[in-house]
Amino acid sequence: MKPLPLLLCVLALGACSSKPPEPRAKPAAADNTATPFDALKADEQRAKDVQKVVDKQAEEQRKQIEAQEQ
After folding, report:
1. Looking at residue 34, what DSSP letter applies?
2. What is the 3-class SS of the chain, one letter each residue?
3. pLDDT for 4-52, tens place per residue?
């Protein structure tokens, strides 16, 4: 029973190494940091663009209806 704790201590100390961990490579797009909200902002802008197109088409259709009534 006494060799078991000694063996566990030796294994634990053996698992530790004296050399520091290697630095991780930085991603290539480190300057262009993306946030979780970028996708939401893009979707919002796309929705605004679609709304502009819909409003323009509705205005044109309203003008055509008014022209036919006269």
Report:
1. -
2. CCHHHHHHHHHHHHHCCCCCCCCCCCCCCCCCCCCCHHHHHHHHHHHHHHHHHHHHHHHHHHHHHHHHHC
3. 888 888 877 777 766 766 778 766 555 567 788 998 999 999 999 999 9
The single-letter code of the amino acid at 26 is: K
SS3 17: coil
Q: Which DSSP symbol is given to 1?
A: -
CA angle 61, 62, 64 (to 5 degrees): 65
pLDDT at site 12: 79
pLDDT score, position 14: 72
Phi and psi at residue 16, in whole multiples of 5°? -80, 135
Strand positions, DSSP E, 3-68: none
* Nearest-angstrom CA–CA distance, 67 and 61: 10
